[in-house]
Fold this protein.
Amino acid sequence: MTTDQTMRLTYLVLLGGAILFWFFSQARQNKSRTLQHSAVWGLIFVGTVAAVGLWGDIRQSVMPRQSVLSETGQIVLPRAGDGHYYATLKVNGTPVRFVVDTGASQVVLSRNDADRAGIKVDQLAFTGTANTANGPVRTAPLRLDSIAFGPFEDARQLVFVNDGEMFGSLLGMSYLQRFSKIEITNGALTLTR
């Protein structure tokens, strides 16, 4: 047990002792009520300790995070609770969360994400169209100054800004093909360059 863990445990024991002392000193006449309150606070205390101890596992289950393994040239993306794989890339230096979409041929930015990345959306020429589940939408092609995914940075990536409603941006095959290997194993998507 490390010193930090020992100090945390000591703090929790002292806190629990202080709460117990307060309960017993407040209700000396009604012992059954004191025991009930002590049991409730004991359960709250144990639950809090368990939640703090398991927080790393809980956070990974609720909101899994991508792992970058630079020494092997890999990026590992855990499957999210909704079954999709999400990746955070830097578009012109701004973090943008993408849905990895092997069914999309291009990288598609939502208007909101493009605006956050410093792209002047109102000055784009929406000359293209894309067919979506909600019908056709207008798109504007452009080349990014930079797009970075972990240690991998590329310039002049062709992307399309979608003029329609999108819940997020899509990372399509025009970018994914930069990786030499894409595999899904044990619920994780691994990209190798």
Remarks:
- The helical segments are 3-26, 31-62, 111-116, 173-176.
- The mean pLDDT is 85.
- Residues 31-62 form the longest helix (32 residues).
